[in-house]
Amino acid sequence: xxxxxxxxxxxxxxxxxxxxxxxxxxxxxxxxxxxxxxxxxxxxxxxxxxxxxxxxxxxxxxxxxxxxxxxxxxxxxxxxxxxxxxxxxxxxxxxxxxxxxxxxxxxxxxxxxxxxxxxxxxxxxxxxxxxxxxxxxxxxxxxxxxxxxxxxxxxxxxxxxxxxxxxxxxxxxxxxxxxxxxxxxxxxxxxxxxxxxxxxxxxxxxxxxxxxxxxxxxxxxxxxxxxxxxxxxxxxxxxxxxxxxxxxxxxxxxxxxxxxxxxxxxxxxxxxxxxxxxxxxxxxxxxxxxxxxxxxxxxxxxxxxxxxxxxxxxxxxxxxxxxxxxxxxxxxxxxxxxxxxxxxxxxxxxxxxxxxxxxxxxxxxxxxxxxxxxxxxxxxxxxxxxxxxxxxxxxxxxxxxxxxxxxxxxxxxxxxxxxxxxxxxxxxxxxxxxxxxxxxxxxxxxxxxxxxxxxxxxxxxxxxxxxxxxx
Amino acid sequence: xxxxxxxxxxxxxxxxxxxxxxxxxxxxxxxxxxxxxxxxxxxxxxxxxxxxxxxxxxxxxxxxxxxxxxxxxxxxxxxxxxxxxxxxxxxxxxxxxxxxxxxxxxxxxxxxxxxxxxxxxxxxxxxxxxxxxxxxxxxxxxxxxxxxxxxxxxxxxxxxxxxxxxxxxxxxxxxxxxxxxxxxxxxxxxxxxxxxxxxxxxxxxxxxxxxxxxxxxxxxxxxxxxxxxxxxxxxxxxxxxxxxxxxxxxxxxxxxxxxxxxxxxxxxxxxxxxxxxxxxxxxxxxxxxxxxxxxxxxxxxxxxxxxxxxxxxxxxxxxxxxxxxxxxxxxxxxxxxxxxxxxxxxxxxxxxxxxxxxxxxxxxxxxxxxxxxxxxxxxxxxxxxxxxxxxxxxxxxxxxxxxxxxxxxxxxxxxxxxxxxxxxxxxxxxxxxxxxxxxxxxxxxxxxxxxxxxxxxxxxxxxxxxxxxxx
Lengths: 471, 471
Hints:
2 copies of one chain form a homodimer. By secondary structure, chain A is an alpha+beta fold.
């Protein structure tokens, strides 16, 4: 007899499966103010691991962390025309502080270009102060009418980088370096996520940018999700804040800037890219707990053995947790570890011990087989790396098998409607075709060059548009 | 000829010295909304090191990190009478979101008791769910009329712990464990700060608590600064949110709670406790850069040598930075490293190299002497530990020498007015004396027992009140 499913199956109702998984794996809850979320310890643990890894990569580029105020004078927002137009509908506004109405309302930051540029214009005096490379970890608020946990929330956590450079080329190269070395590399190698790196069309650009680089991932239902973005801001914000430097040649020049961000949305992507009908599958390199050693029963010999095994696995560098909660039913604990997506379970019962074996259950391939206990410490590091590679391969294969090469808007719409992506020559689509797609809730996720690289311009010959429905 | 002072001397104008130091050491700037601050990379680096150290200590107690929303429905605040009364005058209120007036305004969290209890009341069902030990790193907003960078800012960064327990005793012991093992130990051993651990009087308690433990430090001008606090909340918030659990005996019972926090104010304390007329002095265990190796001149031999020395010091575990910016005047670089308080400077010039020596300048004792280059790697770890110990000793000696034992309110006021603390028997002072002190802007910082431990109650015989002016 088949057991009752713990989650709504993905094939029945993907959005409900997503919500079920987030609740049952204890990743997050809704907060009381519409669109806000409570990130529970298990979900926050994923974010902490992401932060550590990304923070090290960001620092390797020479970028330093700093912190800028949450509250921004409302008037600042209007200094850059495109920026205010982009963000005005999403703002949360503080009108009262300390029991009084404020002379000037303050907005809760939806992003920090404006407040950071107010500092940059003071800090940058000479070419010696450049490049100025700053990152901030924090929270932002964008009022969300159709919230969904992790994907679109009124408040979310992120890192936002902001840099100023002496030349256009330096700024352009730095934005690309972040997109490749920090974001794409992290998502592929740590999160085991297949992502397509491309440039946004003019319509899809960040408000105030002259170019936006993006990473797009295909979720389990074939929709796209935008992950990290990196923007060339040109001199738009420098003009708005008069951020100038004295060049080597003795001229006062405007700086060239970038900004780039990645958010708690990556947790939602992790769920929708790697999750299955039993729950989450956490990539081993990300997992705070890579292997759990479970005592099947509360037998003294078993308990002693699982603790000893835990120590041995720790000694070879595996992040391990011992589950000796034998007052809880074994089956319930297994379901919980499957929901939480811990890559490896090692189950130890009295009968296994007699044989010197344990059951090795691998969450990612979904395999289960007895192995000699003494071989585990030697085996596990390679098992975890194999599973890491398998996750990435599965996500790449999904994208490849569900991406259609098309040549008309109609075909592109059809591909998107049937749960996939389409690739169409940008020359055949153009801004007009892009507008037609929008009528069917299909968007150009990004443009890529013929050889798969990032196009140097929107109009470079051979550009291909990757189009899809998106979260 | 004496060089012109870089900072206003402390003896001339302590508050101005503080502001000068923060600006010139590039710790922080004022933000555009009154009372907000920009934490610059060097200041934020201190915070990151504090966070890492504290986070590890917090996790050692079994506490897990999580994240709760910034925005709290205004009605939540009024559920606990003392709490709302304490925080109402400091609230920032969001009245508009997404272009519309909100049906119910939201407050920007001044602290998260209310929003966290809304979750706790859902998460806690049975005694098996207890203790529930949660910590959050984040920002809070308390409208500040007389702001001062790091000490009182409208927005600040902090960690706030929130726990729920089955019994009064467990909650009381956990609050004490945090205060001793996490806060006091961190401040003494990592920050090299002498702190007095005691309990607050009823008047000075956290809004909604039944007991508040505090750590008080004496600043360079003899005033007190409250550092970490840990609160026993009793069942006040459990009642407000009906947070109950099914006990082992099958009864529905209210949980017992604690909350505890420490903030970016610790950076201000670091400045005012360890700073001198040349700038900050960073305790070696905290310092991201413990030693800087300076090339006096841009001579090839010198440059090669300082890089080699940097590598050798790194190899013995010293956090070292090489300063080879020989296009900047040497004297200016020295002043900058002194301002920033890097514990050790090793200055290498062409003449030193001929002798095989370098100049070892120790910021904390203020000494400077030539040493054999080959001895440095062996010497430095012990030098740094000595300087760490010296800082703690200096701060303890300051407190001891500037604390008077008194027996009347008049003497206590006089001691505080002349830049020091006073100790007075609580039996001689009492709530009435406390009110008298307040007229002179003097407060009871905490009560300590006769033997220096934390009193079990406010009225325990032999309690001594530590009184002072405070930031």
